[in-house]
Amino acid sequence: MKNFLSFLNLNFLLNDDSLKNWRIIIFVSLLALIMIYSGHSAENKIFKIAKLNENINELKNEFIDKRSELIQLKMESKISLKLSHLDLEPANKPPIKIVYEN
């Protein structure tokens, strides 16, 4: 009972040999602070990764939209429709190859 009361009165921190107790308390406190910091750091990284994954998904969707739009624009019917006001039409004959020799 006497030991317990001396513990509650914090006599172990005020004795002559209390230096080793203070060292342990400071060491454990530093470890606790490092652990808290690393936990917060890990949470921040998780949130950052989640945000980057969301951005990746948005960019993938945008890429798919632009690719389908490009495919639609490259269709021959769309090109001929856009060039119809210039009186340009698809050729009826295939192109011929011109060979020039010196």
Descriptive notes:
This protein has 102 residues and is mostly helical. The chain has a domain at 18-86. It contains three helices and no strands. It has helices spanning 2-8, 18-74, 76-82. The mean pLDDT is 87.
Keywords:
102 residues, single chain, mainly alpha, 0% strand, 3 helices
Q: What is the count of β-strands?
A: 0
- How would you sum up the global shape? rod-shaped
Extract low-pLDDT stretches: none
Distance between the termini: 115 Å
Order of helices and strands: HHH
Task: Give the helix tally.
Answer: 3
Q: Quickly give the structural class.
A: mainly alpha
The portion of residues assigned to helices is 55-70%
Most strands sheet: none
Query: Over the alpha carbons, how many angstroms does the gyration radius reach?
Result: 39 Å
Q: Which percent range describes the beta-strand content?
A: under 5%
- The whole-number mean of residue pLDDT values reads 87
Write the layout of secondary structure elements.
Layout: H1 2-8, H2 18-74, H3 76-82
